[in-house]
Structures are given as structure tokens and as C-alpha cells.
Design brief:
The chain has helices spanning about 40-60, 105, 145-150, 205-210, 215-225, 240, 250-255, 255-265, 280-290, 355-365, 370-375, 430-450, 490-505, 505-510; strands at about 15, 20-25, 125-130, 130-135, 140-145, 160, 165, 180-185, 190-195, 200-205, 245, 270-275, 300-305, 320-325, 335-340, 350-355, 380-385, 395-400, 405, 410-415, 450-455, 460-465, 470, 485-490. It has about 525 residues and is α+β, with helices and mostly antiparallel strands. A hairpin with a 4-residue loop joins strand 9 (about 190-195) and strand 10. The radius of gyration is 26 Å and the shape is globular. It starts with 13 loop residues before the first strand and ends with a helix.
């Protein structure tokens, strides 16, 4: 089976954890997008800092060569790694086989095209300053680009490997101090041409440049249309208006329906699929329709039903309070796919649901000081035990805030699970009481927004596990009727990639040109 993927993620080069310690480094010159969606005035200073980082890194390089039979294992969040040039021969071909494992698993063991504008005439390119190249369009619009960005994204065959969509350059030969000697615009070819001080020449298509404009409108359009659709926050009074339903088989068979379903999950945060068959593989099929299932300490699929000697609170018939699955995972499951095989005939067993992002937004608006506590005070989330197999124990821990923000200051993840919040609260004593008061406020606001509904056999309830607080009312099994759900997870990296390939099928083509 062939999957076309289109992954995007916005993150700093250096990422810190809740204690201010470096927890992840992002660096890959070949995979750094030419679309630099920051204000123009930040670009040059960032390149200077990036250059400093890579020069320091190159000063620390160690080199070794593995032999057949060696297995080289390293922390991919921490280690910068590379490889020297080599040559294969008919008798000798270098061959490595690799695999990844998430730290959440390790620790517990203790491109699209924008609409083209009509062609303009009378354009002029000029060096607007020692660091900026400017193109003046006939409609009065000015496109401005840092010289260092232009050189970093030269599209010639010497600098760019088109089949893999990757830069060829190593930063030690980087562009930071190589200035433009002359710029010109070819009206007939619609191209910006740059002659550099080191005698290198670069050519850029105007449409390519427009798509990477540093102006506010272009950056916002790319972030909303390509990176991630803007979320639609909702309270319980809007629940019926934002609810979306899809036919299970149509999702499997029709790409357009699949796209609409994934958009609903990204924008509204949940959706209900109807008419699924009485089959324990429904959740797996939906996960694989998107891409790849996420395997956790509870397996690749899991069952939610009453179990004797339950090792998880969800396996009891008691009320399940509003929560998120797996807040104790650094890479928490993105969506939860829950297929109802058998529903309880008792009065209980109903789903409860709240838009956690909406609650956080209300906290920020109405109670900013308490919001700041939930955003800044780390909480220990944990899961210790086994899922029925004593030979496969786990001990999961992750420290994170209740409210997590992304690089743009938007709420991107809520952590809440009273049953999985550790009694070890590793914060200074003076922070504890104030945090509890803010936490109480958050949960009271959440409870005011609860909506309740009860799925039927054949329903598949799917929701954003980073966003939606969900729970369940108490129920009673009988010998003739036992509530039984089958679930699976998929990461948002996989979902967003699939959604982009469905929304922009031409991206594969244009990236290969």
C-alpha cells in the first residue's frame, strides 16, 4: 500500500520543558521549509542565532564508523547526527535497517498551491537595504525577502535536490555572510534573479515567492489553510450546531467524506459515525484508513468494559469523571476512536463531553491569573500497573501543565485526569494552594458546559483527545447485557498529514518539480 504524506510542524529549534530544561532540539536543514512564517524583522536575527548554534555544533562533532553487526541507538530528541559521503559498488552497497520508539514507551519501562494572481507588469526588483531584497508589483504591493533567506532557499540544482525536496548545503558553508551583488526581474519569465558576491546565481519564480511572502496576510493564510484549520470553540448551547455525523462505510470508501470527517475532528473536535458493523476491527479499520494506528501500553486496540480486578478506572461501572486519556504520555494520543459494540440497557452508560479549549479560553478571558497558574505550574501525571499481563508492567510519568500553549500562544493541549494525577506534586509549597484554587475553577467551568448523549450499537464516537474532556455516567451490567466498546488511537501528526494530502493533492506534484 502506498501513502502520500505531507507533514508540517511549527516549533522552535530549542524546546524547553516545564522546568526550563532543554528537552528537544529540532534541526534538519533538508527538511526546514522555505516558508518561514514569522514577521520579516525576526528573520535575519534568527538566521544569525541559527548560524551560531550550528557552528558550535560543528565544533563538537565526533566521528566513528559502524561495522556489520553493530546497532547504533541514540536519543533523537537530543543527538544531532549525520553521515559522510560514501560510494557504493556493485559488490558493496551500504545498507542499514532502522526503527523508532517513543520516549513515552521507553520511560515506562523505567504542500499546496495558493490561487495564482493575474500576471503583473512593470515589476522592479531592488536591494532595499543591506539585508533585504524588494520586489515592487504594479498593483503597489511590495514583496520583501531577507537576502539570507533567499540564499538559504536557492532552488538551483547545486543547492536543492528536487526529488527529495531537500537542501543540499551544509550550514558550515552557509549563506549568512554572502550578500547579493545585483538583483533583477525578468518580466517575460516572471522570475527574480540574484547574483551573489561569491559569483553564485539564483533564480526564483514569482509565484513561488508570493506563496512565501513574509507579509501578515500570506503568513496567516498559510497557517490557516495548510498548517492547521482554525478551531471552532463551542459551549453546550452550541453543541447541536457543531455536531457532525457521517456514515461509517462512506468514510472508508470516499475520500471526500474522509476529508470532511477529518476536518470536523480538527475544527469542532469530535464527530459521530453511524452504521458501523458488529465487528471488533471497526476502530482498527478507521485508524488505518487515516494512516497508522498508535500503539500504547494498552495495545494497538483496547476494550472498554467492566472487568474483574480492573487495572484501570475506566474498566469499572462507576461514573467516569471528565478526563483526557493518557496525560502521562509526552506524545499523548491524538484522537480516540470508540466503537460501541454493546450499549448498556441500564439508565447509565451515557457519554459526557466538554470542549476543553473553550473552557481554557473562558479561563483566560475571565480569570487570567488563575489561567496563568494552570499554564505555568507543572503537574505529575502517572499510570502504573499492567493491562492484564503481569509480564508486561508499565510505569508511565509525564510532568506537564493543565493548559499547554503552542508557539503562537494558542491552547494546543489540555491535561486533565483526576484518576491519573499523581499524589506527588513536585512544586514549591507556596504554589500548591493557589494551583488547587485555579484547578477547581477550571473544573467548575467545565462541569457547567457538560453535554450528555448515549451512543448506540454501531455508533463510532471519535474525538480530539488533546482538546475534549470526556467521561461516562455510571451503569449496570447484567448477565444478558454487558456494555462493550472497542477503541484505538491515532496521532495528530498522521491525521494532519492525511488531511493535507486530501485537501491539496497537487502538492505532491508541485513539490517534485
Amino acid at each position: 500500500m502506498f501513502f502520500f504524506v505531507l507533514f508540517l510542524w511549527r516549533a522552535p529549534v530549542v524546546c524547553l520543558d516545564v522546568d526550563g530544561q532543554v528537552v528537544r532540539i529540532n534541526q534538519n536543514t533538508t527538511k526546514r521549509d522555505s516558508r518561514f512564517t514569522v514577521p520579516l524583522e525576526q528573520a535575519v536575527a534568527w538566521y544569525e542565532a541559527y548560524d551560531r548554534f550550528l557552528r558550535l555544533a560543528h565544533d563538537e562533532i565526533v566521528e566513528f564508523k559502524t561495522r556489520p553487526g553493530d546497532v547504533y541507538v541514540f536519543n533523537n530528541l537530543r543527538m544531532l547526527h549525520g553521515r559522510k559521503t560514501y560510494e557504493d559498488s556493485p559488490q558493496n552497497k551500504r545498507h542499514l535497517v532502522g526503527a523508532y520508539v517513543d520516549w513515552d514507551i521507553i520511560y515506562p519501562s523505567r504542500t499546496p498551491r495558493f490561487p495564482q494572481r493575474p500576471g503583473m507588469s512593470s515589476k522592479m526588483a531592488r536591494l532595499a537595504s543591506p539585508s533585504i531584497v524588494e520586489i515592487n508589483e504594479a498593483d503597489g504591493q511590495r514583496l520583501k525577502y531577507p537576502q539570507v533567506w533567499l540564499r538559504d532557499n536557492c532552488q538551483c540544482t547545486e543547492c536543492f535536490h528536487a526529488p527529495t525536496r531537500a537542501r543540499k548545503s551544509h550550514w558550515e558553508r552557509g549563506p549568512l555572510h554572502v550578500g547579493a551583488q545585483r538583483v533583477s526581474y525578468d518580466e517575460q519569465r516572471q522570475q527574480l534573479q540574484v547574483d551573489w558576491q561569491d559569483e553564485h546565481k539564483s533564480v526564483y519564480q514569482l509565484q513561488w515567492l508570493r506563496e512565501r511572502d513574509f507579509g501578515d496576510a500570506a503568513r496567516q493564510r498559510y497557517l490557516e489553510e495548510v498548517y492547521r484549520p482554525p478551531v471552532q470553540l463551542w459551549g453546550k448551547t452550541q453543541f447541536k450546531d457543531v455536531s457532525r455525523e457521517f456514515d461509517y462505510q462512506n468514510v472508508l470508501d470516499q475520500d471526500e467524506v474522509l476529508k470532511d470527517w477529518l476536518e470536523a475532528l480538527a475544527v469542532q473536535g469530535f464527530a459521530l459515525l453511524r452504521n458501523a458493523p458488529d465487528d471488533v476491527n471497526v476502530a482498527r479499520r478507521l485508524a488505518e484508513r487515516i494512516g497508522y494506528i498508535k500503539r500504547t501500553t494498552y495495545g494497538d486496540v483496547f476494550e472498554v468494559k467492566s472487568k474483574p480486578n480492573a487495572g484501570n478506572y475506566a474498566y469499572l461501572m462507576m461514573p467516569l469523571p471528565l478526563h483526557k486519556d493518557m496525560p502521562y504520555y509526552e506524545y499523548k494520543a491524538g484522537i480516540n476512536i470508540l466503537h460501541t459494540l454493546f450499549q448498556s440497557e441500564s439508565a447509565g452508560g451515557a457519554n459526557t463531553l466538554v470542549d476543553g479549549f473553550h473552557v481554557a479560553d473562558e479561563m483566560r478571558r475571565l480569570y487570567p491569573q488563575e489561567f496563568e497558574l494552570l499554564r505555568s505550574v507543572p503537574v505529575n501525571w502517572y499510570d502504573i500497573g499492567h493491562d492484564g499481563d503481569h509480564a508486561q508492567p508499565f510505569h508511565s510519568l509525564w510532568r506537564a501543565h493543565v493548559v499547554c500553549l503552542d508557539v503562537d500562544g494558542q491552547v494546543v493541549r489540555i491535561n486533565q485526569n483526576t484518576t491519573k494525577r499523581d499524589s506527588r506534586f513536585t512544586v514549591p509549597l507556596e504554589q500548591a494552594v493557589a494551583w488547587y484554587e485555579a484547578y477547581d475553577r477550571f473544573l467548575r467551568l467545565a462541569h457547567d458546559e457538560i453535554v450528555e448523549f448515549k451512543t448506540r450499537p454501531g455508533d463510532v464516537f471519535v474525538f480530539n483527545n488533546l482538546r475534549m474532556l470526556h467521561g461516562r455516567t455510571a451503569y449496570e451490567d447484567s448477565p444478558q447485557n454487558k456494555r462493550h466498546l472497542v477503541g484505538a488511537y491515532v496521532d495528530w501528526d498522521i491525521i494532519y498529514s492525511k488531511l493535507r494530502t486530501l485537501r491539496f493533492p497537487q502538492a505532491q506534484e508541485c513539490h517534485q518539480k
